[in-house]
Amino acid sequence: MKSRMKKSLCLLGAVMIGAAIVFSGCGSSAGGGNGSAAAEKASPESEVTAVVDGFFTTMQSGELSKLTDYCSQEVLDNQELAGLAEAESFDEMFYESFGLEDMGLSEDDISDEAKASVTNMANTIVRELIGSYTISDVSVNGDTATVDGTVTYGYNTDFDIDIDGINDEVMSDIPEDQMSEYADVYMNEGEAAMMAKIMNDLMPTLLDRYTEALLESEGETDQIQATVTKTDGKWLITEMNLISASETGDSE
Q1: pTM (two decimals)
Q2: What spatial distance separates the first Cα and last Cα of the chain, rounded to whole Å?
Q3: Are 170 and 9 in contact (CB under 8 A)?
Q4: Pick from 140, 122, 107, 102: which is nearest to 24 by CA?
Q5: Which of 6, 27, 26, 44 has its CA nearest to residue 179?
Q6: How far is 57 from 252, CA to CA, in rounded Å?
Q7: Domains in the chain: how many in total?
Q8: pLDDT score for 245
Q9: Residue 117 contacts by C-beta under 8 Å, 6 or more apart in sequence?
Q10: What is the side-by-side order of every strand in the sheet holding 144-153?
Q11: Quick check: 228 and 238 in contact, CB under 8 A?
């Protein structure tokens, strides 16, 4: 029984970490903002700064649907962020990757609490991606501006979570009566029913633990190089490059 449970937990962990890598990888290449772009008319430098500032504060708020207020759709498409503007995108990716059909299950077998834990993890990954940022230089030439700065991630985007270790700890905390419940479900209803119960019971705890481990990792700092263009009287980021320390020779 425990071997079956451990196998299912390892599968859950592997899928979640893989999905998180895809999710955070997409997010780390772009940003958007929602904070200070509504400032009064000022110098072009101030307007451009407000756009880039908003670019990152929107990432920090998790309101990805507002990214197009500060950057072009082409930027989102190029950075593969378009599909992440809605939480449902992550949910769909998770359930597809998890292989519910292979286990004889469907989304209807997943409890509301378990579904909420998937969405909560996705939202946290996005909100915490940008730990802090700086804007060090803004240069405006007509309707085109260049912006330099830095961004420090809220966690290590190349994280390596101890999935097996977390799974073992969670399993060791399962009470004997709960283990007996799983055995009864397996004997009376079959493996698919047991897998559904395990998933619904343990998914919220596992995802919380994975997220906690992720947020405890230390994020790196990249340089920002952005191009901001004024079209029809509105400044928008039309290109955003994030350059790692290893590429600039600043790594220790």
Answers
A1: 0.72
A2: 48
A3: yes
A4: 122
A5: 6
A6: 29
A7: 1
A8: 67
A9: 203, 204, 207, 208
A10: 130-141, 144-153, 221-231, 234-243
A11: yes
Q: Could you read off the pLDDT of 7-43 as tens digits, one per residue?
A: 444 444 444 444 444 444 443 333 444 444 444 557 9
Residues 6 or more apart whose CB falls under 8 angstroms from that of 145 comprise: 44, 45, 48, 138, 139, 227, 228, 229, 230, 235
Give the sign of the dihedral formed by CA 173, CA 176, CA 177, CA 181.
Answer: positive
Reduced to 3 states (helix: H, G, I; strand: E, B; else coil), residue 4 is: helix
Average pLDDT of 47-53? 95
For 174, the domain range is: 2-239
Which candidate, 114, 128, 139, places its Cα nearest to that of 206?
114
Q: How many residues does the chain have?
A: 252
Assigned domain for 249 exists:
no
- Give the CA radius of gyration of the chain: 22
Instruction: Identify which of 196, 207, 197, 195 has the alpha carbon closest to the alpha carbon of residue 170.
Output: 207
pLDDT band at 111 (very low <50, low <70, confident <90, very high): very high
- Tell me if 244 is assigned to some domain: no
Say if 110 falls within a structural domain: yes
Give dist(CA 75, CA 84) in Å, integer.
13
